[in-house]
Amino acid sequence: MTEEIVIAGFGGQGVLSMGMILCYSGITENKEVSWMPSYGPEMRGGTANCIAIVSDSKISSPIIAKFDTVIALNQPSVDKFEKAVKPGGLLLYDTTNILNHPTRTDIDVVGIDGSNEAAKMKNTKVLNMIMLGAFLQKKPIIKFENIIEGLKQVLPERYHHLLPLNEDALKRGMELVQAVEKTA
User: Fold this and answer.
1) How far apart are CA 147 and CA 136, in angstroms?
2) In 3D, which of 123, 126, 141, 122 has the Cα closest to residue 55?
3) What is the pTM of this model?
4) Distances from the Cα of 26 to the Cαs of 60, 78, 79, 167, 181, in angstroms?
5) How do residues 92-132 score in pLDDT, each as one tens digit?
6) Nearest CA to 129 among 18, 7, 23?
7) Contact present, 25 and 146 (Cβ < 8 Å)
8) Could you list the residue range(s) of the whole structural domain that residue 156 is in?
């Protein structure tokens, strides 16, 4: 199993953290991992993305142009990366601020209302965990309990009191995908 993922959005949405959590979680399961961030000079509001690769075998290169999964948190990311999903792959996106929805028919396109769900949870910073939970529902490449371990590694200790909220957000993302699949 090798899963090549690009996660993209605005700076401040937790894009890089989501990739790091996947990779630290993969290490917990003795998988090979690669994490390569890319971001503009802005701290918040600029574009950010990262490539995360989780594999049962050696990873030949962290630099890739086609992905098994794209997780897009904003319109520019959908526009930029929709064409980069391999045929048969997954495009998971936050529908909240998307005007031009993906149109490809040779991939699995799943949109969930992640930003509004994060607002309902009274913490917009959990959008990334909602999206990560949605991804894991579609592609359970890492066990849930190991995602929590990865989260503990990435989240600074002063924020560990937020671990239950993040766990709830992961579960909410899973539920949202289940609901979308029931209506499809």
Assistant:
1) 9
2) 141
3) 0.94
4) 17, 26, 29, 17, 27
5) 999 998 899 999 999 999 999 999 999 999 999 999 999 99
6) 18
7) yes
8) 2-183
Dihedral angle, C-alpha 87, 82, 69, 177, nearest 10 °: -110
Which of helix, strand or coil describes residue 42?
coil
- What's the number of domains the chain is made of? 1
Task: For residue range 137-149, list pLDDT tens digits in order.
Answer: 999 999 999 999 9
CA separation for the pair 5, 77 (Å, rounded): 13
Q: Which amino acid is at 120?
A: K
Q: Which two tokens stand for residue 137?
A: 């529902």
User: Which percentage of the chain shows pLDDT scores above 90?
Assistant: 85
In this structure, what CATH number is given to the domain that contains residue 62?
3.40.920.10
